[in-house]
Amino acid sequence: MESNEIGRGSPFYNAVIKELSLIVETENIVDQINPILSLEIKLYYIKKNGNYTMAEKDDIMKRIIIEKTRSLEHTISGLVKEYADAYQRFYQKEPELHYTYIKILKKVKLVAQELYGQKLNYVKTFYFRYLEWMMWNENLQDLRSQAVKKIRSGYHKNG
Fold first, then answer.
1. Spatial separation of the C-alpha atoms in residues 28 and 58, rounded to whole Å
2. Cβ atoms within 10 A of the Cβ of 11, count?
3. 23, 17, 8, 19: which is closest to 42 by C-alpha?
């Protein structure tokens, strides 16, 4: 009975992998550094591990998703600080982080609702964090490329 149960997978596991696969396909993710893909791979190996019951596997998966969500939150905090520092250096003034943060969250929630709807709560929370991470990263890259353009245009004027 136990081996059949392991072969089929639990409803929670199946739902998690289905939702993560949907995200991977939607985002055209091929890079293994991506948090969603790495999470999907981790969960796949937990499912393959025969040392746990389905209930234990579900619990481990929930904990991993929560832990990875916290890890993304930590990464986002670092990105926000980096963005604020870069913004201050580039524009010579303090950024309106509160406004930027709300703007990003609104965009993230809109994208998540359009693409993702009312899906599994643990995965949905992780996906919010993932999108937020992408948005802050994008903002930082834009700021850096603006700075590079400004520096280059300064060199050309002086050269």
1. 27
2. 10
3. 17
For residue 144, give every residue at least 6 positions away whose Cβ sits within 8 Å of its Cβ, in sequence order, or none: 86
User: CA-CA distance, 34 to 29, in Å (whole number)?
Assistant: 7
124-138: pLDDT as tens digits: 999 999 999 999 999
Q: Can you give the pLDDT at residue 26?
A: 81
23 burial via Cβ count (<10 Å: 0-12, 13-18, 19+):
buried
Q: Give tens-digit pLDDT for 29-87.
A: 766 678 898 899 999 999 888 899 999 999 999 999 999 999 999 999 999 999 999 99
Find, among 31, 48, 35, 7, the residue nearest to 123 by Cα. 35
CA atoms of 141 and 12, how far apart (whole Å): 37
* pLDDT on residue 49: 87
Q: Which two tokens stand for residue 56?
A: 């234990």
**Phi and psi based region of residue 92 (left: phi greater than 0; alpha: psi -120 to 50; beta: remaining):** left
User: What is the overall mean pLDDT for the chain?
Assistant: 87
For CA atoms 56, 62, 67, 68, the dihedral sign is: positive
Sequence-ordered strand ranges (E) for the chain? none
Q: Provide the phi-psi class of 117: left if phi over 0, else alpha when psi is between -120 and 50, else beta.
A: left
